[in-house]
Write a structure and sequence with these properties.
This protein is mainly beta and 457 residues long. It is built from five helices and 24 strands. The chain has helices at 2-12, 18-27, 175-180, 341-348, 440-448; strands spanning 56-57, 66-68, 71-86, 89-96, 105-108, 112-119, 128-130, 154-160, 165-170, 185-190, 201-210, 229-232, 243-246, 250-257, 263-267, 272-277, 280-281, 289-290, 292-295, 300-306, 310-316, 379-382, 385-389, 393-399. Strands 1, 11, 12, 14, 16, 17, 18 and 20 form an eight-stranded mixed beta sheet that branches. Strands 2, 3, 4, 6 and 8 form a five-stranded mixed beta sheet that branches. Strand 2 (66-68) and strand 3 (71-86) form a beta hairpin. Bound molecules: copper (II) ion.
Length: 457
């Protein structure tokens, strides 16, 4: 509290003239670093303070700090941002320091932090430190533990990180609007001993959901269930960077969920273990192997695995969450003859799309006219054809010989000779099958009386 008073007293001294300058300088706000690029920025090793192994925020970045008298000072600015969700679509969101999600804050167990939060939004906000043990008055719940931060004002949060773990920050003020607009970020507390919980690659991202009408750019914040864009760090596939690792690396992926529904995150290839939650690290004896972990609303899961060479899909297993904006209200027309129907409806309702009569796979190959600023429902091109994915999907790309610290996309996996599924070109079997039937009773009949469906004319 005394630091906070000093801060405001010093800030107030700004008008007093030259003699006050040195005091103001000492108490000035740390620089608010801004980053608008959606490209993954692997952070450098910490320049000061306790050593730690930084995380790699997928399509994101970590916030630099200023060390002052042994306290790490960060400056978050809550503000409107423009975020590219994937090439071809940008969204008008709210975030921090130029991006949604905001930058990752990385600290070490035992660190004292002072986090300045400046509000450049049109309405009041707060910053809540999700899962962090701190004095109640630093918990950031507007109205309950502090007054809201009015537009144009800066508040200071100061506390000591008592245990290592993966946490999130988000407003606890008009949450329905502010979280739906993209206000969230990661807060990683590294262990005091960097050898503890050590991995070779440590990725982190937050699950998000938006409802953006095709052709518009601002989310509809009143939406409760019917979201149409499912994001990782406010990106959708193919805008989500791959998670790159070297064969044999121990890899951790930390995933936090700030959407309004659960997401079963599934990874192909090696099995993994859940090693951490918002509450801390899972004791070794309590871990079990998994290939899917369900992440409920407000939860965080850290998973770990030993990387095996290949291109391994990682995605939400709710199939509507691996699609982009056009996935709603499409009637199921499998088995329907709809030749020309799409064009005819399209003349009446521009941008209308009908589901294919054999499924939807054909959609990703169609060159359709879309409204401005939206994405095809399924997209992405792989080495063998269209990937037919969107939303919460990426690829864990594991290769031999990738250097530590190298996170660049290594391209598609070169499969060893003879290890790719391929067309069967041998002899075809000559089995006589019963003709397809349309109801169980007919099927029963055809079994009883083979050839009974043969009609003579
Ligand atoms: Cu999902």
């Amino acid at each position: 509290m005394s630091q906070r008073r000093d801060f405001f007293r010093a800030a107030g001294a700004l008008a007093l003239g030259a003699t006050a300058v040195s005091r103001v300088g000492a108490a000035s706000l740390p620089e608010a670093v801004v980053q608008t690029s959606p490209t993954t920025q692997p952070p450098p090793a910490p320049p000061n303070g306790r050593p730690f192994n930084p995380v790699v925020t997928l399509n994101g970045w970590s916030l630099p700090w200023r060390m002052k008298d042994g306290v790490k000072e960060f400056h978050l600015v809550a503000e409107p941002v423009v975020r590219e969700l994937a090439p071809g679509m940008t969204a008008r969101l709210w975030g921090y320091n130029g991006s949604s999600p905001g930058p990752t804050i990385e600290v070490v167990e035992g660190d004292r932090v002072r986090i300045f939060v400046t509000n450049k939004l049109p309405e009041h906000t707060t910053a809540h430190w999700h899962g962090v043990q701190l004095p109640s008055g630093m918990d950031g719940v507007g109205g309950l533990t502090q007054p809201h931060i009015p537009p144009g004002k800066t508040f200071v949060y100061e506390f000591t990180l008592q245990r290592p773990g993966t946490h999130m920050y988000h407003p606890h003020a008009d949450e329905m609007v502010q979280i739906a607009m993209g206000m969230m970020g990661l807060l990683i507390v590294h262990p005091k001993d960097p050898r503890q919980h050590r991995v070779d690659r440590d990725f982190a991202f937050l699950l998000g959901a938006y409802d953006i009408e095709p052709g518009s750019a601002t989310p509809r914040v009143s939406e409760m269930t019917n979201f149409n864009l499912w994001t990782w760090n406010s990106r959708v596939f193919p805008g989500i960077d791959p998670l790159v690792a070297r064969t044999g690396d121990r890899v951790r992926i930390r995933v936090g969920n700030l959407t309004m529904t659960n997401h079963p995150i599934h990874m192909h290839g090696p099995s993994f273990e859940v090693t951490g939650t918002d509450g801390g690290w899972v004791p070794k004896a309590a871990r079990w192997p998994e290939v899917t972990t369900d992440i409920a609303v407000g939860q965080m899961r850290a998973i770990e695995f030993d990387a095996i060479a290949g291109d391994w899909s990682i995605h939400c297993h709710k199939s509507h969450h691996t699609m982009n904006a056009m996935g709603h209200q499409v009637p199921n027309l499998i088995g329907t003859d709809m030749r020309g129907l799409g064009q005819r409806i399209g003349r009446l309702i521009p941008g209308y799309m009908v589901m294919g009569d054999t499924g939807m796979a054909g959609m990703s190959e169609m060159d359709m006219e879309l409204p401005e600023n939206t994405l095809p429902m399924m997209m992405g091109q792989g080495p063998f054809g269209p990937l037919e994915m969107g939303g919460m999907f990426s690829v864990v790309k594991v290769r031999d010989g990738i250097k530590p610290g190298d996170y660049r996309d290594p391209g598609w996996y070169r499969h060893p000779e003879g290890t790719v599924a391929h067309e069967y070109t041998g002899e075809q079997p000559t089995v006589n099958r019963a003709a397809p039937t349309s109801s169980p009773s007919e099927a029963t009949m055809s079994v009883r009386k083979p050839g009974g469906h043969h009609h003579e004319h």
